[in-house]
Structures are given as C-alpha cells and as structure tokens.
Amino acid sequence: MAHHTPTVLHLDLANQSFEVRTHEDLAPWVGGLGWALALLEEYWEEDPIVFAIGPLSGIIPGCSKTIAVFRSPQNGFLTAALGGGHLARSLRFAGYQAVVIKGVAEKPVVINLDKEQALFKDGAYLMNKETGQVFDLLLSSEGVPGQRSVLATGLAAEQGITFSSLYIDEFFAFPRGGLGTAFSQRRLKGLVVSGSGEEDLGTLKQYEEIFSLLLSKVRGFEELERRGTLKNLEVERKISGVPFENLNEPNFEDQNQLVESFTSPARLSCDGCPVGCLHLVLHDKNYIPYDFESVVALGPLLGLTSKEEVVQLLSTAYRVGLDPTSLGVILAYLTEKEKLSFGDVETYLTLVDAFLDGKEDWAKALGLGLDEGVKQLGGAEFALTLGGMEFLPYFNGYASILSQALSLSATTEENRGFLLDLDLLKGELDPALVVTALVAEEKKKILSQLLIGCGYLSLVFEETATAFAALEGVGAGVGHEELEDAVKKIFAQKLSLQKRSGFNPHHVKIPARFFSVPSPHGLLEEGKLRQMIKIYCENYFDAQP
Amino acid sequence: MAKILKAERMEDCIGCGLCELVASRVTKGKLSYSDSLIQIRKVKPGQPRFKAVIDYGQKTDYKEIRDICPANCFEIAEE
Q1: What average pLDDT does this structure show over A376-384?
Q2: Contact A276 B70 (CB under 8 A)
Q3: Domain tally for chain B?
Q4: What's the confidence (pLDDT) of residue A255?
Q5: What is the Cα Rg of chain A in Å?
Q6: Which of A124, A139, A296, A460 has the least CB density, counted as fewest CB within 10 Å?
Q7: Shortest CA distance from A264: residue in chain B
Q8: Is residue A420 within 8 Å of A427, Cβ to Cβ?
C-alpha cells in the first residue's frame, strides 16, 4: 500500500547542528503519534523531545494539531501534548513530518528553520521577558511572515517551574506536562518554522472529495465555535460536576452566570480548521486565551466566580508562562493547607509573584509540581493530583478519573473518560466494562492522533471509515487491517514506554477527597476504582515489556 | 466591469488560512499557502486581527475562495 514515508529533521542542541533523514522504517506507523513514539523510543537514551504531524496535517480541515512526546519535567513519565496554531502546516510546507530535538545547548538559543536549513541563534535577547514581549521580538526578527509558526517559552520555564507551557503563535500552547520547562532545560528558548513549500498531490480529484466531506463534518461543531471549549462548563453545570473550592463542594450556584459572562469573545482557529474554538478575552489592552480547564481551575476551584477576577489570574498565568490548570490546582492546595481564604484574588496574585521569585521554600517545592511539593510540605489530603500531575478540574465520575490515574490524558481534549462518564450515567456501572470502554475509546483516540486530528473534533477523526478514506484521498492509503493493527501496536508501545519512563499504575495515588464528595454517579468507591486499575493492569499494562 | 474578490469583513477573520489553501488549489492545482493569490497576515502582534493581501494581477473572482471562509469575510463584486 501507499505508505507515507516521513522526512525527519534532527536537531542537536549541543553541537548546534542538524540533519535531515528520510525514515522508511517509520512508514507502517502511519503518522503523528505513531511516528513520534517510534522516534522517542529510538533515541530514548538521549531524552529527546519529538514533534510529529501526519499525512493529513495542514491540508485537510481540522487536521491542525502537532503532537509532542517527551518525558515530563514534572514526573519523568512519558507525556504526549497536542498543540495547534500554524505549527502543523508550517512543518508540512517546510518539508518535515517530524522533528527530533536532542542534547543541551551551552547558552540560550533560538532555532530558525525552513526547508533548507536550521539556523541556531543566540537567544539571550529573549530572556527574562513576559510571554507577549518574547513573541513581539521573535515576530519582528525571525521567520517568514504569514508562513511561519513560532514556539517560545515564558519566564516560568526559565525559572525551572515544571508546569510551564510552551506557547505557539502567541495564543496557542502545548498545555500540561511542562513542555516549556523541557525546552528551557535544554536552553532552547524558541523555535521558528517557516513553511513556504508547495505540494502536487497527483490525486487532486480524490483529495477534493475528501476535503469537502471533512469540511462539511467539521463545520457541524457550532457550539464549539460559539462557546469555545467553555461549552463544557455548561455540560458540567447540568451534572453538578464543577469542583468548587478545591472540591470541598461538587458544584456552585452561579456558574451559569460565569459562562454567560464570557460571551462575544475574539476567536482564533488553528490552520485549516473552520471552527475557531480558541477564544480570547481582552484584559488591560492585552488579549488573553482561555478555555474550559483554565477558567474552572482559576475560577470555581479557587472560589472565584466573577469573570473579572478569573481573567486577572488567567492574564497573570499567561504573562509569566505558567500552565493555568496546574497553577489553579496548586493554589487551591495552598489555600487549604495554609488556611487561607478561598476567593481572595489578591492573595492568589501575591502567591504567583512569590512562585516566580522562587526564594521561599514552599515556592521552590511547589515549583517542582504538586506531587513533588507535597513530599516536602505535607498536606497530601489537600493535593488533588492524578498520575503524577495536577488533576483536570471536573468531577464526572470513575472514567475521567481513571483516564488521568492511568496517565492516558493530561487535558480534556485527550480525556476520553470525560464523555464516557456522561454515557455511564445511564446504566449500571461495572468495573470491567468501564475499563473495556475506556481502552476502546483510547484506541479510537490513537487513530485520530495518527492523522492528526483535533481532539475536540474527535467524532470526525476517530471513525475508521473516515480515517481510511482520508488517507486514501491524500495518497497515503493503508489497508483497514493495517490501520487497525497499527493502532493496537501503538497503544501497546505507549504503555511500554510509560513503563520504561517509570510510571506504574499499581502505585498511583488517588486523593481521598474523591471518595467523600458526591459525584454525578453518587459517592465514588475507592475499592471500585482500585478494581478498575487492577483490571487494566492485568489485561493491558502488565503485559507490556 | 470585471469582478474581483474583495475582503469586506476581515474583522471577522479567525485566521484559519483555508482561503489561502483553496486559492492555490483552484488557481494552480497545487497545495500551498505561500504560493497563493491571497495571503492572510496578522495586523500586528498581540492582536487576533488579520488583513488579506490579494494579488489583483490575476483573476481573483473564484467563488470557491469566497465560499470556503467560515467567517464569511469575502465578497465577489465589481472593481
């Protein structure tokens, strides 16, 4: 069959050198996550960061994501993060399907790359600046305007805070897991990709057909367009799944008002996507991106319910380069542990400043992430973490918790337990069935991450027939059986690399609070959740080498 | 009077670039963002606002380009 053979750019930070290689061995792995994991495994000992796109990236509506795989600075575990903006199309039209970054630079660098070369430049001029300033400087000096994607880290990453984001094209990000910190640890301050190439598919009629089909499907996400991912807050309102004040309460009264107050935002799309689900709010003359997780983590989770206060914290997190979701969970922990008052935005702003200063012991400890911080500071009963990371701020039930506990999802975009919990509200809850259903959803997700479609459009890209037709349409067709076989192997490889990175679901911590506060499924039982983890380990995880 | 593609409502543009991609396909039978008769550029850093640079040295009144825009930014009208 017409497999797609990826061209991979290898960047060596230590030697400031690059090499372009065609990896025929990767062709059976279809694209995206398949290529990324294979490359990560091949260069595992060098602790690389790998970015990959897929055969549909940048030319099919909604296939706008780039996947990054790396070992998280927060916990050392295998982490996958999805990023949007212009990156996927810029990589494609620069001629690269994947980028492998190895080594550590001697001093801060920016890499400016296109289809001809990778230029390593002194990045000192970008240091010690707020996120917006870093982008102002990069956009005025690097790459080809209109054809580039710009990646950069913020102040928090420079300080070594492990939950720092890697920003894309100003307002997009690789959230969670600390990819910004991983860049900073390698003294990589920014990466600029200019994609000015062109492609002659040779199967234009087939391509036009699949383009039209997928465009019509992707255009059906009107609620996502109107509300952005904040639409999920309305879903949570209906099931009382919004964690209030560090989950001391499973809901709060005026959340509908909070959702309504975020209407009429500015919107942005990733390249090739007609939805425009990245929403921005204007604060002090600056545009600030927001989504469901960041609004809940820096709002209700901290007892804040007014848009103005939430936006103040969102703005601060963006300005200094902190992942807003992780930040919210850590501030909620501090509030309870130090017996502070929930809902005091001024205190939270002061705490963020202290974080950045990194002078006090608590700030140093929590800068390593909540799990590590608790080891030094105590107060584990207030720390809502799952799978070595701050939890996603919703309380839907077993499946969404299980997905995080098994380190299968760091974001709602990836958390297939989120919707599964809603489905499970309708029937009897059998642990084995929950595990089977979650794994089935995970495999569907992998299919989308091979292509690589947006997780918020999962209904489109997780359909085998659509995936098969789309790959055919761009001349990268694989057989049905090959595709399904690739998904199975990549799922197994993911678990194997999790294990190699030190992750062990047998030992995962589950906060006791999850079993004392009513969920939409009633009170959850720890025994039942542990049983699910045991079933998963016996049937899937333990079988991997 | 000849008809041309006009960017009439760029304040609604969400920067998806679908118009650039479709323009290169319709006019040249290729896939490209850079070699397209329409180029979408940010007005300035820090702003989610865009402008369209259209090459009027060639035929531009393609309804495929007008219709692909999810924000309905374009019109085909007389010069």
Answers
A1: 97
A2: yes
A3: 1
A4: 55
A5: 22
A6: A124
A7: B12
A8: no
Summarised one tens digit per residue, pLDDT across range A202-246 is: 778 899 999 999 999 999 999 999 999 999 988 888 888 999 999
Residues of A engaging B, defined by a Cβ cutoff of 8 Å = 59, 61, 86, 89, 93, 132, 135-136, 139-140, 144-147, 170-171, 195-201, 204, 208, 215, 219, 225, 266-276, 280, 286-287
Instruction: Please write the tens of the pLDDT for every residue from A528-544.
Output: 999 999 999 999 999 99
Reduced to 3 states (helix: H, G, I; strand: E, B; else coil), residue A329 is helix
Q: How far is it, in rounded angstroms, from Cα A306 to Cα A309?
A: 6
Chain-chain contact of B33 with A93 (C-beta, under 8 angstroms): yes
Q: Could you tell me the residue range of the domain that residue B60 belongs to?
A: 3-78
Mean pLDDT score across all residues of chain B? 96
Query: Rounded to an integer, what distance in angstroms lies between the CA atom of residue A330 and that of residue A326?
Result: 6
Count of A-B CB contacts under 8 Å = 89
Q: What is the DSSP letter of A408?
A: S
- Average pLDDT on A322-330 reads 98
What whole-number distance in Å separates Cα of residue A163 and Cα of residue A333? 15
Query: In this prediction, what percent of chain A has a pLDDT beyond 70?
Result: 99
> In this predicted complex, what is the ipTM?
0.97
Nearest to B15 among A135, A215, A269 (CB): A269
Cβ neighbours of B72 in A, within 8 Å = none
Q: Do B48 and A199 touch (CB under 8 A)?
A: no
Amino acid symbol at A163: F
| Residue A215 in tokens | 């465009």
**3 state SS of A206:** helix
Residue to mutate among A87, A198, A204, A315, with most B CBs inside 10 A, is: A198
State yes or no: pLDDT of A1 exceeds 50. Answer: no
pLDDT digits (tens, 9 = 90+) for A115-165: 999 999 999 999 999 999 999 999 999 999 999 999 999 999 999 999 999
For residue A510, what are its two tokens? 């589950």
- Mean pLDDT, to the nearest integer, of A80-93? 98
**Exposed e or buried b per residue across A480-499, where buried means at least 16 C-beta atoms within 10 angstroms of its C-beta:** eeebeebbeebbebbbbbbb
Domain residue limits, chain A: 7-194
Mean pLDDT of chain A: 94
Residue A292 CA neighbour count, 13 Å, CB half: 24
A288, B34 contact by CB (below 8 A) = no
DSSP string, A269-332: --TT-SS--EEEEEETTEEEEE-HHHHHHTTGGGT---HHHHHHHHHHHHHHTB-HHHHHHHHH
User: Residue A3: its pLDDT value, please?
Assistant: 59
Contacts of A170 in chain B (CB under 8 A): 45-46
Instruction: Check A272 against B18: CB less than 8 A apart.
Output: yes
**Tokens matching residue A307:** 């848009």
Which residue from A83, A194, A92, A197 is spatially nearest to A147, judged by alpha carbons?
Answer: A194
Q: By CB neighbour count within 10 A (0-12 exposed, 13-18 middle, 19+ buried), where does A393 fall? A: buried
DSSP state of A522: B
* The pLDDT value given to residue A239: 87
Nearest neighbour of B45 by CB, restricted to A139, A197, A225: A139
CATH number at A7-194: 3.60.9.10
| Out of A93, A280, A286, closest to residue B32 by CB | A93
Please, what's the b/e burial string for A200-225 (b: 16 or more CB within 10 A of its CB; e: otherwise)?
ebebeebbbebbebbbebbeebeebb
Which structure tokens are listed for A114? 């296109």
> Which helix (H) or strand (E) element contains residue A212?
helix A204-218
User: Which chain B residue's Cα is nearest to A90?
Assistant: B33
